[in-house]
Amino acid sequence: MTDTIQKRACELAVYMIETGATVRAAARKFGISKSTVHKDLSQRLEHYDAALYQQVRQVLDLNKQERHIRGGMATRRKYKGDC
Fold it and tell me: What is the pTM of this model?
């Protein structure tokens, strides 16, 4: 079972690095929960592949910084229909 978790964590990391996807988008793509994606990338991956972890950490941090902007744009689309 550890092998499948390790493989999933590495696949998630590569996908997020290549696409810049959010945790929510990665969860949707892989058919797992956001909590699982977050735990795989922020806790488990560090023990499996430190270099890959550092790269995905940058994507996660960037997404966190931009989160409030995406939320504002979604609200704008909801109420004004533009954007």
Answer: 0.81
